[in-house]
Amino acid sequence: TQLLEQSPQFLSIQEGENLTVYCNSSSVFSSLQWYRQEPGEGPVLLVTVVTGGEVKKLKRLTFQFGDARKDSSLHITAAQPGDTGLYLCAGARGATNKLIFGTGTLLAVQP
Amino acid sequence: DTAVSQTPKYLVTQMGNDKSIKCEQNLGHDTMYWYKQDSKKFLKIMFSYNNKELIINETVPNRFSPKSPDKAHLNLHINSLELGDSAVYFCASSQVRSGGGNYEQYFGPGTRLTVT
User: Fold this and answer.
1) Residue B84 and residue A43: Cα distance in Å, rounded?
2) How far from chain centre, in Å, is Cα B43?
3) For residue B101, what pLDDT band results from cuts at 50, 70 and 90?
4) Do B43 and A45 touch (CB under 8 A)?
5) Structural contact between residues A87 and A105, judged by C-beta atoms closer than 8 angstroms
6) What is the distance in angstroms between the Cα of A69 and the nearest Cα belonging to chain B?
7) What is the mean pLDDT of residues A2-6?
């Protein structure tokens, strides 16, 4: 089973703090996506990274794809309560580009 | 306008019953998916259809039968429901790139199925 492990599993921080979420696998992926899911809703795509070593920024969020395309990280600067949610990484593999989702990181940002 | 819609939002039923969940997308995408999210929030793909053709069929009990009447619809029928089927089921859609690979997936709001 191709498993994408995310760490930490849970994270509760104060508004204004920085944090990093990691997504690791022993498998190589053609691309990797990060989603955020809020309670009662479906996941919403934040970013797609394709090239090994690629770094993308989305306002206060910085995403990096590992050089070997096996891992990724999400860094949030000055977290805000609106960042609260479940963060999911998802790697694409195979001819059908099936998405393998990570185990998830539940983030709570306290005001 | 809702991009990917599912009905019903909540479904409570007894063991042994048969139920269906409907999904529709108005994004013009050619690929649709069904995912299951368990109580630990783990999201796992079940099926994928491209232009009404089944392209991904994970290890799912044959009590689950997807049906795609057209590109914009992918329904999920479940026979003889079991307690372990309780989960949130998400429909999603995407568009295959001309050079291969998919664009991002758009998810519906989910259907929370509770089997008692």
Assistant:
1) 23
2) 12
3) low
4) no
5) yes
6) 16
7) 84
Q: Are A52 and A69 in contact (CB under 8 A)?
A: yes
**Nearest C-alpha of chain A: how many angstroms from B59?**
12
Q: Which of A88, A92, A98 sits opposite B43 (nearest CB)?
A: A88
Please, what is the Cα angle at A62 between A81 and A8, to 5 degrees? 65
Query: What b-and-e string marks burial along A66-91, b requiring 16 or more CB atoms within 10 Å of the CB?
Result: beebbbbbbbbeebeeebbbbbbbbb
> How far is it, in rounded angstroms, from Cα A86 to Cα A36?
6
DSSP A15-84: TT--EEEEEE-SS--SEEEEEEE-TTS--EEEEEE-STT-EEEETTEEEEE-TTSSEEEEEESS--GGG-
CB contact under 8 A, A42 and B110: yes
Do the Cβ atoms of B56 and A33 come within 8 Å? Answer: no
pLDDT at residue B109 greater than cutoff 90: yes
Contact at 8 Å (CB) between B115 and B81?
A: yes
- What is the pLDDT, as a whole number, of residue B11? 97
Give the integer Cα–Cα distance in Å for B75 and B32. Answer: 10
Those residues of chain B whose CB sits closer than 8 Å to some CB in chain A are 4, 40-45, 48, 55-56, 90, 92, 100-102, 104-110
Q: Is the pLDDT of residue A86 over 70?
A: yes
Residue A76 exposure: Cα atoms within 13 Å on the Cβ side: 24
- The residues pairing with A4 across neighbouring beta strands, listed in sequence order, are A102
Question: Which residue matches tokens 């849970």?
Answer: A10
